[in-house]
Amino acid sequence: MKFGANNHEERCSEGHRSASIIATIKAALSADPDIDSSAIEIRMLGPVVLLEGYITKAADRDRVISVAALIVGGENVHDRMLSRFPTQ
After folding, report:
1. SS3 label, residue 43
2. 79 near 41, Cβ under 8 Å?
3. Is residue 25 part of a domain?
4. Which of 22, 29, 31, 55 has the fewest CB within 10 Å, making it most exposed?
5. Which run of H or E residues covers position 31?
6. Angstrom distance (rounded) from CA 88 to CA 79
7. Closest CA to 56 of 39, 43, 31
8. Torsion angle, CA of 31/36/39/41, rounded to 10 degrees?
9. Long-range contacts of 66-69 (CB under 8 A, 24+ apart)
């Protein structure tokens, strides 16, 4: 790993891009009243979006993946969400 101004410029733009993508996906999920995204964590690993956490409805999985895929493309979305359905 290199340190210094040159390395910062290379790594900084990648970090800003990842933060922007994560913020965009979070905003899109929050705007959808049919999705409970409160327990979903969004991370980036290179160009891949990792969806982690818990869903409480089976339909949420497909909807969350679809929202993320609209932003980064379906091939760049990796689903690691777990189902946690309420007991009756």
Report:
1. strand
2. no
3. yes
4. 31
5. helix 5-31
6. 27
7. 39
8. -40
9. 67/25, 67/28, 67/29, 67/32, 67/35, 68/25, 68/42
* Residues 29-73 pLDDT 10s: 999 998 888 999 999 999 999 999 999 888 899 999 999 999 999
What's the domain range around 47?
Answer: 5-83
- N residues, the chain: 88
pLDDT band at 17 (very low <50, low <70, confident <90, very high): confident
CA distance 4 to 10: 10
- Report which of 21, 18, 26, 20 is spatially closest to residue 64, judged by C-alpha positions: 26
In a domain, 74, yes or no: yes
Domain-embedded: residue 66: yes
Q: How many domains does the chain have?
A: 1
Tell me, yes or no, whether 88 lies in a domain: no
CATH of the domain at 43: 3.30.1340
Query: What six digits make up the tokens of 65?
Result: 């993946």
